[in-house]
Amino acid sequence: MNMTREDMDRLRYAKDLLENPGLAAKLTHLIGMPFEKAFSRLPAKWNDVVQEITQKSLKQALDAAVRTINCNDKKSSRDRMHKILVATSGGIGGAFGLPALAVELPATTVLMFRSIVDIARSEGEDVRMIETKLACLEVFALGGRSDRDDSAESGYYAIRAVLAQQVSEAARYIVERGLAEEGAPALVRLIATVASRFGVNVTQKVAASAVPLIGAAGGALINSLFMDHFQNMARGHFIIRGLEKKYGPAEITAWYNRV
Protein backbone atom coordinates (compact mmCIF):
# COMPACT_ATOMS: atom_id res chain seq x y z
CA MET A 1 0.00 0.00 0.00
CA ASN A 2 1.31 3.45 -0.92
CA MET A 3 1.67 5.87 1.99
CA THR A 4 0.89 9.57 1.65
CA ARG A 5 3.82 11.98 1.90
CA GLU A 6 2.31 13.48 5.07
CA ASP A 7 2.08 10.06 6.75
CA MET A 8 5.61 9.16 5.65
CA ASP A 9 6.87 12.37 7.25
CA ARG A 10 5.01 11.49 10.44
CA LEU A 11 6.53 8.01 10.41
CA ARG A 12 10.04 9.46 10.04
CA TYR A 13 9.32 11.93 12.85
CA ALA A 14 8.05 9.13 15.11
CA LYS A 15 11.08 6.94 14.44
CA ASP A 16 13.39 9.87 15.10
CA LEU A 17 11.74 10.38 18.50
CA LEU A 18 11.73 6.69 19.42
CA GLU A 19 15.31 6.00 18.35
CA ASN A 20 16.87 9.11 19.88
CA PRO A 21 19.58 8.70 22.55
CA GLY A 22 18.31 7.38 25.87
CA LEU A 23 17.87 9.28 29.10
CA ALA A 24 21.33 8.40 30.47
CA ALA A 25 23.08 10.15 27.57
CA LYS A 26 21.00 13.29 28.08
CA LEU A 27 21.55 13.29 31.84
CA THR A 28 25.30 12.72 31.43
CA HIS A 29 25.44 15.85 29.31
CA LEU A 30 23.39 17.72 31.92
CA ILE A 31 25.39 16.80 35.02
CA GLY A 32 28.75 16.94 33.24
CA MET A 33 30.18 13.68 34.58
CA PRO A 34 30.25 9.97 33.62
CA PHE A 35 27.31 8.07 35.05
CA GLU A 36 29.58 5.59 36.80
CA LYS A 37 30.54 8.38 39.22
CA ALA A 38 26.93 9.39 39.72
CA PHE A 39 25.89 5.77 40.45
CA SER A 40 28.68 5.44 43.03
CA ARG A 41 26.92 8.07 45.13
CA LEU A 42 23.77 5.94 45.54
CA PRO A 43 23.27 3.83 48.68
CA ALA A 44 23.82 0.05 48.49
CA LYS A 45 20.85 -1.97 47.22
CA TRP A 46 19.30 1.21 45.85
CA ASN A 47 18.09 -0.64 42.75
CA ASP A 48 15.81 -2.79 44.93
CA VAL A 49 14.34 0.31 46.54
CA VAL A 50 13.77 1.94 43.16
CA GLN A 51 12.06 -1.18 41.75
CA GLU A 52 9.67 -1.39 44.71
CA ILE A 53 8.73 2.30 44.54
CA THR A 54 8.49 2.17 40.73
CA GLN A 55 6.00 -0.72 40.73
CA LYS A 56 3.81 1.00 43.33
CA SER A 57 3.96 4.26 41.36
CA LEU A 58 2.87 2.61 38.11
CA LYS A 59 -0.04 0.85 39.84
CA GLN A 60 -1.27 4.16 41.29
CA ALA A 61 -0.86 5.98 37.99
CA LEU A 62 -2.58 3.44 35.73
CA ASP A 63 -6.14 4.44 36.57
CA ALA A 64 -5.76 7.76 38.42
CA ALA A 65 -4.30 9.70 35.48
CA VAL A 66 -7.09 8.77 33.07
CA ARG A 67 -9.90 10.13 35.25
CA THR A 68 -8.82 13.74 34.77
CA ILE A 69 -8.66 13.67 30.95
CA ASN A 70 -11.49 15.22 28.95
CA CYS A 71 -12.14 12.53 26.32
CA ASN A 72 -14.01 15.00 24.07
CA ASP A 73 -11.23 17.60 24.14
CA LYS A 74 -9.87 18.12 20.62
CA LYS A 75 -7.05 20.47 21.61
CA SER A 76 -3.36 19.69 21.37
CA SER A 77 -1.77 17.96 24.34
CA ARG A 78 -0.59 20.23 27.16
CA ASP A 79 3.03 19.08 27.19
CA ARG A 80 4.41 22.32 28.63
CA MET A 81 1.94 22.42 31.52
CA HIS A 82 2.76 18.84 32.54
CA LYS A 83 6.48 19.57 32.28
CA ILE A 84 6.11 22.54 34.64
CA LEU A 85 4.19 20.43 37.15
CA VAL A 86 6.82 17.67 37.07
CA ALA A 87 9.61 20.24 37.38
CA THR A 88 7.91 21.56 40.51
CA SER A 89 7.71 18.03 41.90
CA GLY A 90 11.39 17.49 41.09
CA GLY A 91 12.33 20.77 42.74
CA ILE A 92 10.65 19.72 45.97
CA GLY A 93 12.28 16.29 45.79
CA GLY A 94 15.68 17.81 45.05
CA ALA A 95 15.43 20.02 48.12
CA PHE A 96 14.98 16.99 50.40
CA GLY A 97 17.35 14.59 48.60
CA LEU A 98 17.08 10.82 48.12
CA PRO A 99 14.73 10.15 51.08
CA ALA A 100 12.03 12.13 49.26
CA LEU A 101 11.90 9.63 46.37
CA ALA A 102 9.11 7.58 47.97
CA VAL A 103 6.88 10.68 47.82
CA GLU A 104 8.26 12.44 44.74
CA LEU A 105 8.34 9.47 42.31
CA PRO A 106 4.65 8.45 42.68
CA ALA A 107 3.60 12.09 42.15
CA THR A 108 5.93 12.45 39.16
CA THR A 109 4.77 9.13 37.66
CA VAL A 110 1.07 10.10 37.90
CA LEU A 111 1.82 13.44 36.22
CA MET A 112 3.83 11.67 33.51
CA PHE A 113 1.07 9.13 32.98
CA ARG A 114 -1.45 11.94 32.69
CA SER A 115 0.72 13.64 30.08
CA ILE A 116 1.09 10.36 28.16
CA VAL A 117 -2.69 9.87 28.19
CA ASP A 118 -3.13 13.47 27.03
CA ILE A 119 -0.74 12.85 24.12
CA ALA A 120 -2.63 9.64 23.26
CA ARG A 121 -5.90 11.62 23.18
CA SER A 122 -4.35 14.31 20.97
CA GLU A 123 -3.26 11.60 18.52
CA GLY A 124 -6.84 10.32 18.18
CA GLU A 125 -6.88 7.51 20.76
CA ASP A 126 -10.00 6.81 22.84
CA VAL A 127 -8.54 7.05 26.34
CA ARG A 128 -11.62 5.39 27.86
CA MET A 129 -10.60 2.06 26.31
CA ILE A 130 -8.52 -0.31 28.42
CA GLU A 131 -6.32 -1.04 25.39
CA THR A 132 -5.37 2.64 25.27
CA LYS A 133 -4.65 2.76 29.01
CA LEU A 134 -2.31 -0.21 28.66
CA ALA A 135 -0.70 1.34 25.56
CA CYS A 136 0.02 4.37 27.76
CA LEU A 137 1.59 2.05 30.32
CA GLU A 138 3.81 0.60 27.57
CA VAL A 139 5.44 4.02 27.08
CA PHE A 140 7.24 3.66 30.42
CA ALA A 141 9.07 0.63 28.98
CA LEU A 142 10.41 2.66 26.05
CA GLY A 143 13.79 4.24 26.68
CA GLY A 144 15.29 5.26 23.37
CA ARG A 145 18.78 4.19 22.35
CA SER A 146 21.63 3.90 24.83
CA ASP A 147 25.23 2.73 24.61
CA ARG A 148 24.23 -0.53 26.27
CA ASP A 149 21.22 -1.19 24.03
CA ASP A 150 22.97 -3.04 21.19
CA SER A 151 20.66 -6.05 21.18
CA ALA A 152 17.49 -6.45 19.16
CA GLU A 153 15.55 -6.56 22.43
CA SER A 154 16.07 -2.82 22.88
CA GLY A 155 14.38 -1.78 19.60
CA TYR A 156 10.94 -0.18 19.64
CA TYR A 157 9.11 -3.06 17.98
CA ALA A 158 11.11 -5.64 19.92
CA ILE A 159 9.97 -4.12 23.22
CA ARG A 160 6.37 -4.07 22.02
CA ALA A 161 6.69 -7.73 21.01
CA VAL A 162 7.97 -8.61 24.50
CA LEU A 163 4.97 -6.85 26.07
CA ALA A 164 2.32 -7.92 23.54
CA GLN A 165 1.13 -11.13 25.22
CA GLN A 166 1.14 -9.58 28.70
CA VAL A 167 -0.81 -6.55 27.44
CA SER A 168 -3.37 -8.85 25.80
CA GLU A 169 -3.76 -10.97 28.95
CA ALA A 170 -4.04 -7.89 31.19
CA ALA A 171 -6.66 -6.31 28.91
CA ARG A 172 -8.75 -9.48 28.90
CA TYR A 173 -8.48 -9.83 32.69
CA ILE A 174 -9.44 -6.19 33.34
CA VAL A 175 -12.41 -6.36 30.96
CA GLU A 176 -13.69 -9.43 32.84
CA ARG A 177 -12.93 -8.36 36.43
CA GLY A 178 -12.03 -4.67 36.42
CA LEU A 179 -8.95 -2.64 37.31
CA ALA A 180 -9.73 -2.69 41.02
CA GLU A 181 -9.34 -6.47 41.30
CA GLU A 182 -6.70 -6.90 43.99
CA GLY A 183 -3.60 -8.75 42.88
CA ALA A 184 -4.74 -9.29 39.28
CA PRO A 185 -1.98 -11.69 38.14
CA ALA A 186 -1.96 -10.61 34.48
CA LEU A 187 -1.73 -6.94 35.44
CA VAL A 188 0.91 -7.61 38.11
CA ARG A 189 3.10 -9.39 35.54
CA LEU A 190 2.72 -6.55 33.03
CA ILE A 191 3.51 -3.84 35.59
CA ALA A 192 6.54 -5.81 36.82
CA THR A 193 7.90 -6.06 33.26
CA VAL A 194 7.32 -2.38 32.54
CA ALA A 195 8.73 -1.40 35.95
CA SER A 196 11.94 -3.36 35.30
CA ARG A 197 12.61 -1.18 32.25
CA PHE A 198 11.24 2.08 33.64
CA GLY A 199 13.21 1.50 36.85
CA VAL A 200 16.47 1.74 34.89
CA ASN A 201 15.54 5.28 33.85
CA VAL A 202 14.38 6.12 37.37
CA THR A 203 17.73 4.94 38.77
CA GLN A 204 19.52 7.13 36.23
CA LYS A 205 17.37 10.09 37.27
CA VAL A 206 18.05 9.43 40.95
CA ALA A 207 21.78 9.04 40.32
CA ALA A 208 21.87 12.40 38.55
CA SER A 209 19.95 13.99 41.42
CA ALA A 210 22.46 12.54 43.91
CA VAL A 211 25.31 14.56 42.44
CA PRO A 212 26.40 17.25 44.95
CA LEU A 213 25.13 20.78 44.33
CA ILE A 214 22.16 19.55 42.26
CA GLY A 215 19.62 20.62 44.89
CA ALA A 216 16.14 21.93 44.19
CA ALA A 217 16.97 23.78 40.96
CA GLY A 218 18.80 20.75 39.55
CA GLY A 219 16.00 18.43 40.65
CA ALA A 220 13.50 20.55 38.74
CA LEU A 221 15.71 20.53 35.62
CA ILE A 222 16.30 16.77 35.79
CA ASN A 223 12.57 16.11 36.19
CA SER A 224 11.82 18.40 33.27
CA LEU A 225 14.25 16.43 31.09
CA PHE A 226 12.77 13.17 32.43
CA MET A 227 9.27 14.29 31.40
CA ASP A 228 10.45 15.59 28.03
CA HIS A 229 12.06 12.23 27.27
CA PHE A 230 8.89 10.22 27.93
CA GLN A 231 6.67 12.76 26.18
CA ASN A 232 8.80 12.13 23.09
CA MET A 233 8.44 8.36 23.55
CA ALA A 234 4.67 8.77 23.91
CA ARG A 235 4.36 11.00 20.83
CA GLY A 236 6.31 8.55 18.68
CA HIS A 237 4.43 5.54 20.08
CA PHE A 238 0.95 6.95 19.39
CA ILE A 239 1.86 8.25 15.94
CA ILE A 240 2.96 4.72 15.08
CA ARG A 241 -0.25 3.23 16.55
CA GLY A 242 -2.33 5.66 14.51
CA LEU A 243 -0.51 4.74 11.32
CA GLU A 244 -0.88 1.03 12.11
CA LYS A 245 -4.65 1.48 12.36
CA LYS A 246 -4.66 3.18 8.96
CA TYR A 247 -2.26 0.96 7.01
CA GLY A 248 -1.94 -2.20 9.10
CA PRO A 249 0.77 -3.21 11.64
CA ALA A 250 2.81 -5.31 9.19
CA GLU A 251 2.95 -2.49 6.63
CA ILE A 252 4.09 0.10 9.19
CA THR A 253 6.66 -2.26 10.71
CA ALA A 254 8.16 -2.75 7.25
CA TRP A 255 8.22 0.97 6.52
CA TYR A 256 9.63 1.74 10.00
CA ASN A 257 12.57 -0.59 9.37
CA ARG A 258 13.07 0.86 5.90
CA VAL A 259 13.11 4.64 6.52
Short summary:
With 259 residues, this protein is mostly helical. Helix content is 73%, strand content 0%. The radius of gyration is 18 Å and the shape is globular.
Helices and strands, with pairings:
Blueprint lengths: L4 H14 L4 H9 L3 H5 L6 H22 L11 H18 L4 H22 L7 H10 L16 H22 L7 H25 L5 H33 L1 H10 L1
Describe the structure.
The chain has 259 residues and is mainly alpha-helical. It has one domain (5-142, 151-258). It is 73% helix and 0% strand. It has eleven helices and no strands. The longest helix has 33 residues, at 215-247. The relative contact order is 0.20.
Number of helices: 11
What structural class do you assign from the helix and strand content? mainly alpha
**Quaternary class:** single chain
How many strands, what sense, and barrel or not for the largest sheet? none
How far is the first residue's CA from the last residue's CA?
15 Å
How many strands?
Answer: 0
Q: How many individual domains?
A: 1
Question: Strand portion, in percent?
Answer: under 5%
Low-confidence stretches: 92-96, 147-153
Give helix % range.
Answer: over 70%
**Shape call:** globular
Global Rg = 18 Å
The mean pLDDT is 79
The SSE order reads HHHHHHHHHHH
